[in-house]
Fold these 4 entries.
Entry 1:
Amino acid sequence: MPRPHPSVALIAHLSGHAPGYGCASPDGRYQAVELGGDTLIVDLQERLMHRALGVYPRGFEEATPDGAKGTTLRMEGEETATAYLPAWTDLQWIALEHTTGSFWTPWPDPRTAGLPPVDETLPAEWTSEAPQATERVRRSVGDWTAWFVALAVLAFFAVFGFNAMTWALAGGWQWLWMAVGLPVFAMFSVLTVVFVVTSLRERRRVRVALGGMSLERGEGFRIGEPFDVRLLATVPEAQGGERTVAPERIAVRLMRRSVRSEADGRWTVADECCDEAIAVRDDTTRAGRVLYACELCARPTPDDAPSQWTVELRETAAPNSAPFVVAGLRLAAR
């Protein structure tokens, strides 16, 4: 699901619940999230909402089971088992394009309710969502020695099986060697070929990841004045069959969320990127730690609407993915 619309965060904040699992319609008009055991549905085009009680969203479909066409939300609610009946799942479908006017209610007005607090994302560890590369496994001298020993053992038994079959050609009681040589030769010759092919073609995943992340953003910033953003992190330990590396570059964006009034008296919550920079990895810090640093500057805004400022960190290899770090910023007084 794409990032939830700001209206979802506002409604969740006013309800006192954190949004859970969510989904979006294929055309992007509707979003549905789990909210305190209910399902919150928002119409982004008409700025309307509906809260379905006691059900959970499971996805959008193109039609209802009875054939009604149009964007349809599938939900389910699990009933409690009794002494006479087992638990059962209640499936429901709502054809959103065929609902009546009483189904929807307007969004809360952020001009009076205020913007919700910034939903910060500061994970301790992060792994790239981009496709992970692979590389050939590099072996040490000891690994190559063990490899040749194993190959020699397999080849010895394969040769022994072949020689046993040749001994059986002498005839007489030596035909008994065929019962030993044939299965030994067949098994170990195949094992030798498989061992050589799989070991020489063995590859491991190169996982792009960061751990122990610490973001330095200062105590505040001023409009029109540059300020520094620094990310200190470590490279997580590699698991079996992989190697971990830190990304070469990270995209850093300065985001502004504000409430804008429109000419027709309506309003909209807008997210805009006010500045962007690329932070390059610096390995000259303390051993085991990497540093990403860049400079951002907020441009003067044409209005005085209440705003929330955040800094977002994204991976350059997957620019359309969700940011892995979202941190709030404080506008310092002049």
Entry 2:
Amino acid sequence: MRQRLLERAELGLKQSWALPTRWHAGAAEALSAVIFLKAETLGDASLFEQSARWATHTVRLAPVQPNAWIRLAALAERGYGNSVCDIDLCLERSWSVALMVEPEPACARLQLAQRRNLLTPNDARIEAYLDGGASRSEAARCLSFLPPDELFQTLMRTLSSD
């Protein structure tokens, strides 16, 4: 069912008479996301490469697309590079264009930054993530890379400010 929905979404974006993916960053971003999800489901390297191309097209149309920058970083980390940024620069641009994104992509960005050793102890970006609306359980799962005592203290600081 999921695969069929992804196929329909992809076809809808690619076959629309208005050709939105050529001129609308939101449509190009949606197509990149759909293809990325298909690639993860199928484990298809050519789909990961297509997703990277569409995300690159997205940020060229409108560089204020934080999710496209996050996807470019994640794809580059997996070995699917792009022509606009390396992993660290993609992450930097993602943070610079959006102080707050939905919790799930923000979590992916934090986890990728942690794997790249780009976070510092008590990093303000972690606090910004927590201020962005993630539930306590989402935050605990997302920040599981923190040492247990630091995770506890971080969550307690956030809870005490509620």
Entry 3:
Amino acid sequence: MLADRGAEGAVVQGLRAGLHLPATQLRKLVAFIGTALPFWRDDDLRRPETAEDALSDQLCDFLNDVARNSPGLDAFKFQRETRDDSKGGRNLDIAAKPSGCSIWIGDRHYSPYDIFLPIECKRLPTPAAKKRDPREYLFSSSSSTGGVQRFKSGAHAANHGFAAMIGYVQDQDIPHWQQELGKWIDELSTSAAPLWSANDRLELERHDKGGRQAIFNSNHARANGLSDIAMSHLWIEM
């Protein structure tokens, strides 16, 4: 069924063999999600949507279908609006969890009830509305809704050293938003130092031939004595 939907090409090397190896497995899971994004976007069965929640619902369904039919990736399930495992009053947009197995990364154990990879999703640009900060992918001056800000402050994934952001690019293109985020980070380095600095800039890891899908990496210092967090940023032009 998935092959008929064009999703077969989204499958990358499985994770089953070597699940007990170091945290490179987290990045392999990120690579799987990044490769799947264009197949999800172009799926003929997908109803066009623009709202963040609707897009994330669709993406979660698609990732579960593809993972279930991919040897190795069937060790994972994707859940929407999952209760954060360190901040009970907050929900993660998407959480990847072990499915029917346990996973060890270093000395940390993940059961099917544990969040393996916390994921936050944001639209680019931020929808225009009262009390919405255009920089919301990174930071919000009027609320705690800033995407990366939630991870830096410990509001999300305080007990995780790795997380991911998914950016739904709905206007302009990926190079435009990479440049915009660089400007915003420069501004925050002045107005919100020392939590923000030039070290928060996103570094390109890879993109597809058309430049409509890209993965960036970043490392972020965190507040309140929390250890730093590494992040992958997966962007898809809608």
Entry 4:
Amino acid sequence: MELSERFGWEGRSIAWGRAGNGPPVVFCHGTPFSSRVWSRYADALSSDFTVYLWDMPGYGASSKHPEHAVDFGVQAKAFAALLAEWGLDRPRVVAHDFGGAVSLRATLAEKATYASLLLVDVVAIPPSGSPFFRFVQKYPTTLDELPPYIHEAIVRAYVANASHRGLRQPELDELVAPWLTADGQPAFYRQIAQYDEQYLVDNERTVGELDIPVKVVWGRDDAWIPTSTGKRLADLIPGAPYVEVPDAGHLMQYDAPIALASLLREWL
């Protein structure tokens, strides 16, 4: 599924796409990824649902202007504005990684309304981050100046580490491509430098207010966010079941596609 549409919001250009017929389902990607992680699933579901994909500002095919903030708060506002632009009142929302915090804040702080929420290996509550994140936050502009071939090696190694089974070369190429352009390299480090865990602290305090069906799904071999965080998140949300998928890391979309597709269809 291609992102053939554009939404202008506060000087940003947000790439998005829509396909299919039926109840609306909106997918939210994480970092350092794009809507490509959900593209195959959107295609498969478009026979029964109207599916929406979008790239957050600063990611994928959306604009990457250095003066535009890309933190959780900004992304949540952008998501709420995009839902209003689409005229969606209560869509089903499916979120991965950073998209979890964005979709949670959009409903808890920006008052976006959903019919349900499926959270897959999400960044949502503290603790989060990694030694690499802390290094980038300490030296963001220095890394902007890396020779492109060294930057590419870093991004490839970082993204590849999110998969438990190992990404095929075309999959890895597709995921890293947006970060290898002239505006993509500084955007990659900028989104890490602006990562603010205070938004996750706020989420932890307010997720108990959710009054919609929520399900938490986690890869049993997620090397980025431990299963203990997923279980704790589910415990904080009233009535939220927790499911672990074996032989799956942080990129469950690639590690366990059949299991994830089955869980998606069952939930939707």
